Amino acid sequence: MDNQALDNIPSMGQKDTAPGFDFSLIDNPARSENVGLLTVKPANAWIEEAKSRPAPRMLFDSLWFEGELCILFADTNLGKSILAVQIADAISNGRAIPRFRLQADKQPVIYLDFELSDKQFEARYSDNFTEHYRFSDNLLRVEINPESNTPDDLTFEEFLNLSIEQTVSETGAKVLIVDNLTYLKQGTETAKDALPLMKSLKSLKGKHGLSMLVLAHTPKRNQSHPLTKNDLQGSKMLINFCDSAFAIGESYRDKRLRYIKQIKQRNCESVYDAENVIICEIAKPTNFLQFQFIEYGSEKEHLRSLEDEQRDRGQLIEQAKQLSKEGKSQREIADQLKISVSTVNSYLHK
Fold first, then answer.
1. Cα dist. 198→238, 239, 243, 280 in Å?
2. Helix axis angle, 341-348 relative to 306-325, nearest 10°?
3. How far is residue 83's CA from residue 292's CA, in Å, rounded to a whole number?
4. Single pTM value for the model
5. 301-324 as b/e, with b when 16 or more CB fall inside 10 Å?
6. Is a pLDDT exceeding 60 seen at residue 274?
């Protein structure tokens, strides 16, 4: 590079004169400037403002903190709703779930239940429909009103989102649990569908200062593989835009057991990773269906091994051949064994 070119390079501390930005901001940390959708401030100004707000407190141990949009995901029938209601109950009455830290104060919780009917909910929190569990009045359970009509100028999803925001505004609750994600928007498999949903949730969270726990599904997965962010059903945009996430897995060794694994975190270091998952079992000692802590352990102890996989595959091959001898079609065999027709065809030719 020649000397003339070197002379044209701004020295450290020299201001660029590019149009569109007021570089006096750098000289005056107390001043800010809005640029379209953006708020531009020196880093120190952001820190000074943040110092005036309290540090986020734990809502469900280090898995979910105040102010976070957190996703809890698991396969069907592994107990997502059971754990979510247990978390809501703990926050609403200010009593921590045994072995799980709770730092936040007792407060109202909105639980959007798009899964269970009121009778199904009653069955879980009673002793055979008697001796009902008494929840705190801080816990507000919400269902879809079957008699409501969606306005002509709104889609169902738009009307639902507006109704949720109105509920938040009228109750003043700062904790919102959504059971589950698919009800908010049909189709989250692509970034095109997932991005608007996550923008909507983060906007709601920011506007009302919410802590949000959103339940989601995993697609059918191989039980020999560890749980990862890739197991969240739909676009990776969901996991990329949330603040934290944790998942529930089923123990292959003992179908009664579940393990909880931390998948993503921003407010702390990972505590409950693959080497330190939380082992629980689902129990109903009286009138409250719940997760009960057993121990901490390694995820690999609860995954299907290669030997298990080979044995299970051998059993399926024998079952497929036996059903074929009994005159079943490949489609009927596939439906009964819950495998694809192409897999049945492969098994029958082994």
1. 7, 9, 11, 30
2. 80
3. 10
4. 0.81
5. ebbeeeeeeeeeeeebbeebeebb
6. yes
Question: Can you tell me the distance from the alpha carbon of 155 to that of 117, in angstroms, rounded to the nearest whole number?
Answer: 24
Helix (H) or strand (E) holding 264: strand 257-264
User: What is the chain's length?
Assistant: 350
**Distance from C-alpha of 251 to C-alpha of 279, rounded to nearest angstrom:** 9
The helices-and-strands tally (H runs, E runs) of the chain is 12, 13
In 219-327, which residue ranges form alpha helices assigned H by DSSP?
237-241, 306-325
Integer Cα distance of 235 and 198 in angstroms: 11
pLDDT tens readout for residues 296-312: 999 999 998 777 777 77
Strand ranges across the sheet with 211-217: 139-142, 109-113, 175-179, 211-217, 69-74, 244-250, 257-264, 277-283, 290-297
**Residue closest to 216 by CA, chosen among 242, 191, 195, 196:** 242
Residue 339, number of CB atoms within 10 A of its CB = 16
Please tell me the distance from the alpha carbon of residue 227 to that of residue 264, in angstroms, as a whole number.
12
How far apart CA 26 and CA 275 sit, in angstroms, is 46
Q: Which residue has the tokens 């009902």?
A: 132
Helix (H, G, I), strand (E, B) or coil at 160: helix
- Residue 248: which residues within 8 A CB-CB, separation 6 or more? 72, 73, 74, 78, 79, 80, 83, 258, 259, 260, 261
d(CA 303, CA 228): 13
Residues of the chain above pLDDT 90, percent: 63
